[in-house]
Amino acid sequence: MSQRLKKEIPFIVKTSLLFCALSAAFSVAGILLPEKAALHNPVGGLNLHEIGGHLFWGLVAGAAFMSARYAIVTGFFAVLIDSDHAIALFHVDALARMSHSFAFGAIAIAVLMSVFGKRDYRLGAAAFAGLLSHLSFDAFSGGDSSFPLFTPFYNHAIMFPSADWVYFEIAAVAVAGVASLIYSRRVLEKEKTAKA
Ligand SMILES: [Zn+2]
Q1: Contact predicate 58/77, CB 8 Å
Q2: Using CA atoms, how far apart are residues 134 and 56, in angstroms rounded to an integer?
Q3: Is this structure's pTM higher than 0.90?
């Protein structure tokens, strides 16, 4: 492994752990919603195909950052969002897949950026791109593509046709691409002012 990539490991591990914990914690909010119901046991859903698929989809979207650090983080976020299934281990009624929602995306952006750097909008974008690419692979793999996308405002799972995977992934690439563009413009401006 290159020295440069090695230096990124602590950042990647820390942001991924926080994202994973946030998703598991957010799933607890599903207990409070009136639309809660019995949950399926999540253990059966964890397999290599799922994990590999989510990682790959996340890496593809994250590639738009043109930065190994943010591409890898996006890939990990796309896998770890499924820790919102953790609530099912407690055998309580809850709304399933809480983190498969825009609300979780917003919370993840706010928390990650306040912990790791308020100006690190590429990290915020990675959280949102990770979410979108996760939904994309869930739809693509055809297992279960219904998400409570607008919770806590609309607490019912919305079913997406499998073909919609492409829109979710395009949106994920766009989020990463726009953040990357803004970043490179800022770098250019800084260089200009440094020279002036
Ligand atoms: Zn999922």
Answers
A1: yes
A2: 10
A3: yes
Give the end-to-end CA distance of the chain in Å, rounded to a whole number. Answer: 38
Rounded to an integer, what distance in angstroms lies between the CA atom of residue 111 and that of residue 120? 12
Q: Using the mean position of ligand 1's atoms as its centre, give its distance from the Cα of residue 190 in Å.
A: 40
Indicate the number of domains in the chain: 1
State in Å: Cα 184 to ligand 1 middle.
32
Residue 85 CA, ligand 1 centroid: distance in Å: 8
User: How many angstroms separate the CA atoms of 108 and 103, rounded?
Assistant: 9
Instruction: Please give the distance, rounded to the nearest whole angstrom, from the Cα atom of residue 113 to the centre of ligand 1.
Output: 23
Range(s) of the domain holding residue 147: 3-195
- The per-residue pLDDT string of the chain (196 residues; one tens digit each, 9 = 90 and over) reads 688 888 999 999 999 999 999 999 998 888 777 777 777 766 555 688 889 999 999 999 999 999 999 999 999 999 999 998 877 777 888 888 899 999 999 999 999 999 999 899 999 999 999 999 999 999 999 767 889 999 889 988 899 999 999 999 999 999 999 999 999 999 999 999 998 7
Distance 48 CA to ligand 1 centre (A): 14
* Structure tokens that stand for 95 in this block: 């709304």
How much distance in Å is there from the Cα of 81 to the middle of ligand 1? 7
Rounded to whole angstroms, the Cα distance separating 36 from 156 reads: 9
